[in-house]
Amino acid sequence: MVFRIFLQAGLFWLASCSLAWAAQDSIPVRVGVFENSPIVTAAPGALPEGIAIDMIRWVAEREGWQITYVPDSFDNLVERLDKGDIDLLVGFAYSDERAKRFQFSQQSLLGNWGMVFRHAQADINSLPDLKGKRIALMRSSTHGQALVALLTQFDAPFTPVYVDTYPQVLEAIVERRADAGAVNRVFAALHAHHPDVVVTSIVFNPVFVHYAAPKGANPALLAALDRHLAALKADPQSAYYDSLRHWLEATPGNRVPNWLPWTAAAAGSLLVLVLVVAGFLRYQVQRQTGELQRRADQLQSEIEQREQAQAHLNQLAYFDGLTKLPNREGFRTALHQTLTGLQGTDERLALLFIDVDRLKNINDGLGHGAGDLLLQQIAIRLQSVLRAHDHLSRFGGDEFVVIVSEIGASSDAELVATRLLQSLAMPIDIGATQIYSSASIGIALYPDDATSMETLLKHADTAMYQAKEQGGNRSLFYQAQQTERVVERLTLDTRLRQALERDELLLHYQPIVELGSRRIVGVEALLRWNDPDRGMVMPGAFISAAEDTGLIVPLGEWVLEAGCAQLRDWQKRGMADGMTLAVNVSTRQFEGRRLVKSVEQSLSRTGLAPEFLELEITENVMLIMNDEVRSSLDSLRGMGVRLSLDDFGTGYSSLSYLKQLPFHTLKIDQSFVSKIPGQAGDTQIVTTILALAKGLELEVVAEGIETQVQYDFLREHGCEFGQGYLMSRPQPADVLAAMLGRPLVAGIA
Ligand code: C2E
Ligand code: MG
Ligand code: MG
Question: Which of 348, 617, 618, 640 is the most buried (most CB within 10 A)?
Answer without folding.
Answer: 617
